[in-house]
Amino acid sequence: MSVKRKPLSGIQTRPIETPKAAPEQSESPTGSTVQSPERPVSQHHRPSRADKAQIAAFFPPEVRKQLKLIAVEQDKTVQQLMGEALNLLFAQYQRAEIAPTERR
Q1: Which domain holds residue 69?
Q2: What is the DSSP string of 13-82?
Q3: Within a domain: residue 49?
Q4: I need a surface site. Which of 14, 25, 39, 92 has the fewest CB within 10 A?
Q5: 81 domain residue, yes or no
Q6: How far, in Å, CA of 87 to CA of 95, rounded?
Q7: 58-87: per-residue pLDDT in tens?
Q8: What is the pTM of this model?
Q9: 25 — phi, psi (to 5°)?
């Protein structure tokens, strides 16, 4: 049985905010210098996350609970435990253990 869904054509979208950066200058085809408009600073910008990528997966809630319990018991962060787990996986596949495991 198929479900009738409303068309998406009536949905209004808002532009995505991007971080502010210094205006870039470039040369136009006529030879004059043109300034790009400034980008707005995102309220979600975190310098500690620069040059890092998020890795995510979906598991049952009890997996998350168990991971958090281990973190508390071992006085570590979930981030540290995930680094350890990834390094064990990398070692199993003969890859360099490059995931950081130190506390930030």
Answers
A1: 61-104
A2: --PPP----PPPEEE-TTS-EEEPPPPPPPTT--GGGTT---------HHHHHHHHHHHHHTT--HHHHH
A3: no
A4: 14
A5: yes
A6: 9
A7: 999 999 999 999 999 999 999 999 999 999
A8: 0.57
A9: -110, 140
